[in-house]
Amino acid sequence: MKTTPVTTSENATLTLSSPLLKTIIESIKEKKGEGIVSLDLKNVHESVADFFIFCEATNIIQLNTIIDYTEEQVRIECEQKPYRVDGKKGDHWIVLDYVDVVIHCMMPETRKFYNLEELWHDANKKEH
Description:
- By secondary structure, the chain is an alpha+beta fold.
- Helix content is about 35%, strand content about 25%.
- It has five helices and six strands; from the N terminus they run ααββαβββααβ.
- A six-stranded mixed sheet has the order 3-4-5-2-1-6.
- Helix 2 runs antiparallel to helix 3 (about 60-80).
- It starts with 8 loop residues before the first helix and ends with a strand.
């Protein structure tokens, strides 16, 4: 049996101009993340979040720096902590999960291999 996720008034109005998304995108830009793309998944029935944010790092140090800085800025600016962080011990892909917004920071070859943006091709895509 398929269930419909509960929608709160906060995530029902989540847009690219929302403080959380603006903070995430600006934080990635400040640490020179490349290939920043947002996918608006609100109208995709099978989605697990309202937005996915993808970006690339040119090396492992930058990968960790982007995630650490973004997490810190969201905590300061939006008073939110991630629900989960995965991949910190790896060196190719780190996921920062804020439930309604999931950030995927990857090395270019990993991003190309998994091609998640194509998997969610029916979402509204914006390059930043």
